[in-house]
Amino acid sequence: xxxxxxxxxxxxxxxxxxxxxxxxxxxxxxxxxxxxxxxxxxxxxxxxxxxxxxxxxxxxxxxxxxxxxxxxxxxxxxxxxxxxxxxxxxxxxxxxxxxxxxxxxxxxxxxxxxxxxxxxxxxxxxxxxxxxxxxxxxxxxxxxxxxxxxxxxxxxxxxxxxxxxxxxxxxxxxxxxxxxxxxxxxxxxxx
Amino acid sequence: xxxxxxxxxxxxxxxxxxxxxxxxxxxxxxxxxxxxxxxxxxxxxxxxxxxxxxxxxxxxxxxxxxxxxxxxxxxxxxxxxxxxxxxxxxxxxxxxxxxxxxxxxxxxxxxxxxxxxxxxxxxxxxxxxxxxxxxxxxxxxxxxxxxxxxxxxxxxxxxxxxxxxxxxxxxxxxxxxxxxxxxxxxxxxxxxxxxxxxxxxxxxxxxxxxxxxxxxxxxxxxxxxxxxxxxxxxxxxxxxxxxxxxxxxxxxxxxxxxxxxxxxxxxxxxxxxxxxxxxxxxxxxxxxxxxxxxxxxxxxxxxxxxxxxxxxxxxxxxxxxxxxx
Lengths: 191, 325
Fold this sequence. Notes:
Largest sheet of chain A: 4 strands, antiparallel
Shape of chain A: rod-shaped
Oligomer: heterodimer
Strand content of chain A: 15-25%
Number of strands of chain A: 4
Helix content of chain A: 55-70%
Radius of gyration of chain B: 19 Å
């Protein structure tokens, strides 16, 4: 009697095939995962580099802001502010072409007698227009009074006022007279 | 004879009916006392290598419903030693104890067309004899007789969990699953001559078990398998004789088959004496199953000594596949 029954489970062979291909897929999946991890690792390293660079730049920006703050604070000090105001004033005048410092100096130099010299000059803003404060020093009263007279007669200045007069009684500059005065400068106005 | 495998549409690993080329190249037999393996040559048919190993007592206790193997790892190691001698086989077979399987001969007037419906019908018919839920059965059957209005099937059922235990022992050894699994006595039926008009009785005693089968032509008419309670050879022989008498009586009374010829395959210590006493009991010559002498030609002298008591199932596989020496 020929026997043809068989209890071998054909499905087991199929399952083993599935297992084999499943294993292959797992290996491929792992390889893919490793590849992804490597790429991700490189990206992370690159990101950290960029992040460090950004932090470095942010630090530099912070330092610059601190310096800016310090500079702004120094600019807000009264002396600097005053200088700034003066510069602003001068700049505004220059911008309006109402006054030329070189022209002013030239005009004052023209008024000075030979025995006198200009020792200080300041241009300040006032309600009536630019005001000049100056000091001259000369040998004796005549020279400085001559300058004062010329100043009063000059068409470029008016409202001349003497603010101080000093006489040097001794020393190497004995006899020198120092005169401080102020005047409104009208010579720079545009016609 | 038609052959059907239940529960799956895949049939690529089927063995029989496809000639020697589909025969497994390595076959293992696992019994409670030993494991034996053989490497088979297809053409010319012959057993190339053969090796056997004894198993520890209690390691394997055949049962159709309970766990069979107490230590799969130890069994696997014993099988590994066999595999070291036999080598790997892409197609390999496994012979398990008869006690693992439920053998049924069923008759139907007609069968459904769809295999799934046939399977459901068979599960329903054998549910009482299984001893476990029918949906847990691994089922295979072959048509043994088809007449007008009558179909006779040989149905073999094994609890899937039990068979999986045996398969699990091979998992570390074999890349592919077994291409052939059978209860060990079933292939022996191929060694009985089909031309014999009378009923033929086969007594197969081995490893604490005895199985009796009565075949008429190419039909299995009677099957009975039971474990041997006795351990002593003489007591076992008495038990086998009593069981043989019961088988002959049952075949005559229940199936109406008169046994006209008897065969034995005694693979216990009491083989020679048992053969003579069987003849006396049955009142007819009881011959040893005919094994083609050429099958053992490639074996060494030591392996030939192993082939004589253990080689019958392997010779039966050649007979089933149609391979000739």
